[in-house]
Design brief:
The structure holds two protein chains of two kinds.
Chain A: H1 2-25, H2 27-32, H3 34-50, E1 56-57, E2 68-69, H4 73-80, H5 83-114, H6 119-129, H7 137-148, H8 154-162, H9 178-203, H10 207-215, H11 220-244, H12 252-258, H13 266-269, H14 272-280, H15 286-314
Chain B: H1 6-34, H2 38-44, H3 56-63, H4 66-98, H5 105-117, H6 122-132, H7 139-144, H8 151-164, H9 167-175, H10 180-191, H11 193-209, H12 212-217, H13 226-243, H14 249-254, H15 258-293
Classes of the chains: A mainly alpha, B mainly alpha.
Chain lengths: ~325, ~290
Amino acid sequence: MSQISSAKSAASLQAKKKRKYNLKRYSPLLIMMIPGLLYLLVNNYLPMFGIVIAFKDINFTKGILASDWVGLKNFEYLFKTSDAFIITRNTILYNVLFLFLGTVLSLSFAILLNEIRRKFLLRTYQAIISMPHLISWVIISYLVYAFLNPENGLMNRTILPMLGMDEGISWYTEAKYWPVILTLVDQWKGIGYGSIVYFAALLGINEEYYEAARIDGASRIQQILRITLPIVVPVIIMMALLQLGRIFYSDFGLFYQVTLNSGALFETTATIDTYVFNGLTGSGNMGMSAAAGFYQSVVGFVLVITVNYLVRRKSKESALF
Amino acid sequence: MRNESPVLTWFSHIVLILFSAACIIPFILLISASLTDQNSVIANGYSLFPREFSTAAYEYLFTRGSDIIRAYGVTLFVTVVGTVVGLSVTLLMAYPLSRSETPYRGLVLFLVFFSMLFSGGMIPSYLVYASILGLKNTIWVLIVAGVLTNGYYIMMMRVFMQGSISKDLIESAQLDGANEYRILWSIIIPTSTPILAVIGLFTAIYYWNDWQTGMIYITKPDLYSIQNLLKRIMDDVQFIQSNLGANAGGAMAQMPTDTVKMAIAVCGSLPILIAYPFFQKFFIKGIMFGAVKG
């Protein structure tokens, strides 16, 4: 009995020693991580504690830390107005629409790219269609403005008159057009990028499958329907699920800058992100914005965890964690 | 040889050419608008080809170009410093996480993962950088509150290192007496150049295009990056159009006219568009790499 326990303690002592030895030997590896860890601490972890300001009555003269606790007041105000409903609805509906359209269009373009045999042309197409992904939202807002500028824009001065409509449209004050405009702009910017992602998945398909199908007399279209699509379905599902996990977050640049943050468009263009930002800059209510930010962080977190659990059940390697 | 369907191939070419045109036309409109005579724009609106060619907008910019040059200086500084520092931090984080011997590896991995899952959001970040660290209206905030590093970059690089650097190589270097820093410098960095290039490029593009950080933390025009300058010019036009209405004659005369505005936007986007053909191969490789590994 005592022999066993002494052997055990000797083993644990050895393990401890080894650990200590390792710590010393591999301490340079730990030292290397210090800058990154410090950055994560300041940039990611400190703000996490900051979400408690959603429970405070933010008062800049008192200072934020000294402001009074008000419990759920900010949330009550937020959910009493129609704002909470509008920003949640917009954020979710746009995300679902973008996810659906983006997947269909990106995959279609990837399949078309896969039909191009000439390397030079393939590279040229890829380069041109992924170019919008490279451009900042500010520049894109100028491009959109060149079309929609009420006085000089291409739409009001050239395209609408060609269609027989001489009355121009005041684009930046008419909310009803923006679901279409934002969808077009989002897809224009994203399809090139998305198609290259799927194209990479198509490149991985074994050429022998096509060869065998060809011998059996399958046409190219049949090959796409019977071989290409079934093989990329798991990739599609994974990508879609991962995007679903981000359904509470919107592309701030698209909804804020492309719309020029025009208040008249609130009904169809406000998302949780733009709402929070407008609270921060003072054109909205800071307390309600902090509450919206808290709501986004928490619900967003729950969604990511749930989605990841679903992904994990389907395929372990594709899961985020 | 893969069998081909000529009809499908032609269809692919046509669709891709049309979409390529759709990607290029807005830029042509922008450039054309900047090269059109102001009176012609007022009479006919913007068009895809200048009806009356004029370089007046650019001449105006050159005479009053100090704002633009300073903004480019800010953007260049932030991009270069941000990319060098950010890439170093990412590398120094990813490499130890790719080694199984690293002490507390599990804990650090968890911290990196969790930072990808949960975020405090915009207002708490603002409190940290502006109120606690007092970095508002400094050039440094553009670097640190941007993306110096993030979980995705760290994980992408870590996965690459685990796949491409053999344990034996590291062990034999240890036997030869190389310490960890030497191994990082002489083995890890040279074998990781593809992923360093990709993440470096993505970080650089991020900093070049970043306007959100400046919008939140910078109120002094001296510190505007080119993106923030562009945004400010757009805002001024909106403000005057919506608030002053018909009485804006005097103010309108002093501010950039529509062609000048378009010329500034061209100046803001031209450098990256000119550089694009030279790095597009890496850019596309980077997108594909993220798709396969991520």
